[in-house]
Structures are given as C-alpha cells and as structure tokens.
C-alpha cells in the first residue's frame, strides 16, 4: 500500500504558537485517547500504539494553518 493512503489524524493541540515537545505531544495524545476511550502506549518518542495500531507521531507546522504548530499521528 502506498504511504499516501495510510490512515492519519490530527490531535488537538491548544498551544499552536509553540512547537510541541515530545512531552507535550505525548500529553496531548494521552488526553485525546482518554477522552475517546482508546487504549494507548508509547513506543518511544515518536511512536504510539492506539487500539493495537502503530502510529508515527509528527510534530510541526500544520498545513494551511498560517504558521501554527500541530500534532499528527499516521499509521505505520
């Protein structure tokens, strides 16, 4: 399967003007998962397992957001 067809989703990040550190990204993902009833565990700084699926964690500029930062998880 091509990478462009992999499942991905954005994680709400309130401090869009500040680059998300690893700790802030993991905190936001934890909150997102707990609020939605998902099981999760971190497999390192840039990888998380949510409901038995592995995702890469991207931290950086959000496309089309005029310079705001965001967090995105993309299925491996």
From TrEMBL:
Protein name: Uncharacterized protein DUF4318
Superkingdom field: Bacteria
């Amino acid at each position: 399967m091509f990478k462009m067809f992999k499942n991905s989703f954005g994680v709400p990040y309130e401090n869009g003007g500040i680059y998300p550190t690893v700790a802030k990204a993991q905190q936001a993902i934890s909150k997102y998962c707990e609020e939605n009833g998902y099981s999760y565990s971190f497999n390192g700084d840039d990888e998380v397992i949510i409901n038995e699926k592995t995702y890469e964690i991207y931290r950086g500029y959000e496309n089309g957001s005029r310079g705001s930062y965001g967090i995105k998880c993309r299925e491996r």
